[in-house]
Amino acid sequence: MANQRTLSIIKPDAVAKNVIGEIYSRFEKAGLKIVAAKMLHLSKEQAEGFYAEHKERGFFGELVGFMTSGPVMVQVLEGDDAIAKNRELMGATNPKEAAPGTIRADFAQSIDANAVHGSDSPESAEREVAYFFSSDEICPR
Ligand code: IDP
After folding, report:
1. Which terminus of the chain has a lower count of CB atoms within 10 Å, N or C?
2. In angstroms, what CA-CA distances link 9 with 45, 53, 62, 78?
3. Residue whose CA is closest, atom 17 of ligand 1?
């Protein structure tokens, strides 16, 4: 399996619930390494740019409003098959449909306040990692 990097965000609802450590523990137990991390309170412009692919969707304003409502924890995860592995740990977008034991099933309350973001392809991972981190902020181990 290929070694990959993926971008993960712990969203404002999960930061407010004080479960950053519990979510990090799930990454580590699954064999993913945190190779960069920062806490940020996103501006409207940062959130709009990050989610630009959803600009035309009806929920875009709600999504940007939610993502700027409080601090987020942003990290780069590295490991074998990291993109799919992180998506599996996250569970389905709608927590009501997320498999038991996934991060969204355990910590999310609704489709908008759904605890975590994870890149969904190698192309989006590359764009999203570069959106938040310069190469000298990433520390492969
Ligand atoms: P993903 O986060 O599982 O990849 P996407 O379809 O890429 O899901 O949607 C991005 C984010 O937009 C979701 O995580 C969720 O926060 C938000 N979102 C998706 N659908 C809805 C909706 O119908 N209402 C409100 N927010 C939504």
Report:
1. C
2. 17, 17, 17, 14
3. 112
Phi, psi angle pair for 139, to nearest 5°: -120, 85
- Residues found in the chain: 141
ipTM score of the complex? 0.96
**What distance lies between CA 113 and its chain's CA centroid?**
12
For the question of residue 117 being annotated catalytic, the response is yes
> Is 3 annotated as ligand-binding?
no
Percent helix / strand / coil, the chain, rounded to 5: 45, 20, 35
Instruction: Specify whether the CB–CB gap between 66 and 11 falls below 8 A.
Output: yes
User: What percentage of residues in the chain have a pLDDT greater than 90?
Assistant: 98
Cα–Cα distance between 6 and 133 in angstroms, integer? 12
Rg of the chain over all Cα atoms, to the nearest angstrom: 14
